[in-house]
Specification:
alpha/beta, TIM Barrel, three-stranded mixed β-sheet, globular, 11 helices
């Protein structure tokens, strides 16, 4: 029976058991008007229907939407979301408030009001790209750390490893080029942050940069700058031609890239598995016209869910063989939960259903649960799209895409 509402709220999750942290990157840019550099689901409507989330276009700030995502994630072994965390440039050097964040709704409006929030660990990835604020020694200790401690680190479900909150960085080169005058000054600042955490009852703090460089020098520089381990937002795989569909080669190359990084950094590099890459919605002049990002065209490739599973199996096998204490034995990253327009997502969609999630569950969990594959609509839940279906939505699309 379908479309009959037997329950009054999202059914409680039935988590699968995993022996490691399985963390999916989370891009919270799908609240109406929140992205600022693009138009969110409006960029996909009527043009890319295969990119439609299984629940339809949704109000990301709605805690009930977040509860569905938590349910789907933990039932398939994803036990941590890593939220992209953006701070406006105008806030540099000032005390941080929620209003100073870009896309802060994913955490502050949705996750923090979700009924099932404690089923899911979360962490933040400090985005310090050129459009957003970075930091410096004084600002990090006086403004960022107090905000992070009060709002994130002190929560039971913030990601901590060995009783140390974990902070991720995207675009860490900016730390070296603009924020800290030397590697020694950066490390000293990070060490001061570690002491700040100890003063609040933790055993220190963990810092991790998005840095996939293969050289031994990159490994040594990361240590000198105070980082604990390195990771990639994606696997680092790049297709050789505009559209590439040799899936056996893609599987092999992703695992080889991970292995190559471990050759110079066996204890401090963790794997990221990618399902596909197809940023076609961002290839167009139309997207450039509404975006402050530069025009770019990345090469496209896809893995079937079955071959994505092979990547996961390969990375797990490599990680399991690492020495005790290696970071790669503790955590694996999934690229990505919800990059709908940039074109890499494992969240349930009309095109792929739950298949990528099933691959994660099969490889990284004990499969000791029974996932619920009924959609919200199957169970009579509606009303998750109050902002995207505006009265002039059709006219908006026609005007923008004419």
């Amino acid at each position: 029976m379908y479309n009959i509402k037997f329950e009054s709220y999202v059914p409680a999750p039935s988590p699968a058991t995993s022996d490691r942290i399985v963390a999916a990157h989370y891009y919270a840019a799908w609240k109406y008007g929140a992205a600022e550099v693009h138009e969110g689901f409006n960029d996909l409507a009527e043009i890319y229907p295969d990119r439609t989330p299984l629940m339809g276009y949704y109000d990301e700030e709605n805690p009930e939407v977040c509860d569905w995502e938590i349910k789907w994630a933990v039932e398939h072994g994803i036990n941590c979301f890593i939220y992209c965390w953006y701070r406006r440039r105008s806030n540099m050097g000032k005390p941080v408030t929620v209003n100073d964040l870009r896309c802060g709704h994913g955490i502050h409006e949705a996750l923090f009001h979700a009924k099932y929030q404690n089923y899911m660990k979360f962490a933040i990835m400090f985005e310090i790209g050129p459009l957003w604020s970075a930091t410096d020694e004084k600002d990090m200790l006086e403004n960022l750390m107090p905000f992070w401690m009060e709002n994130y680190f002190s929560r039971d479900n913030y990601l901590k490893i060995d009783n140390k909150p974990v902070l991720f960085f995207f675009n860490p080169k900016r730390l070296a080029e603009e924020c800290f005058s030397s590697a020694e000054r950066q490390k000293a600042t990070f060490d001061a942050c570690r002491e700040y955490c100890r003063a609040h009852g933790f055993d220190g703090m963990v810092f991790a940069p998005c840095n996939t460089e293969l050289t031994k020098q990159a490994c040594e520089d990361a240590v000198e700058r105070g980082f604990d381990f390195r990771f990639g937002y994606n696997s680092g795989y790049r297709a050789p031609v505009d559209y590439y569909n040799d899936e056996d080669d893609i599987v092999k190359k992703q695992c080889e890239l991970y292995q190559q990084r471990l050759e110079n950094d066996p204890m401090r590099f963790i794997p990221t598995a990618s399902c596909f890459a197809d940023a076609t919605p961002r290839h167009t002049e139309r997207w450039r016209a509404i975006s402050s990002y530069p025009f770019y065209k990345e090469k496209r490739w896809y893995l079937s869910p079955e071959n994505f599973r092979r990547v996961l199996e390969g990375m797990k096998e490599i990680s399991d063989a690492l020495p005790d204490g290696a970071w790669g034995k503790k955590i694996i990253m999934i690229d990505n939960w919800n990059e709908w327009d940039e074109g890499h997502f494992v969240a349930p969609s009309h095109k792929f259903g739950y298949k990528y999630l099933q691959a994660i569950r099969e490889v990284f969990t004990k499969r000791d649960n029974l996932p619920d594959y009924r959609t919200p609509q199957d169970q009579g839940f509606t009303g998750y799209n109050q902002s995207w279906k505006t009265p002039d939505f059709g006219e908006f699309c026609k005007e923008k895409y004419k």
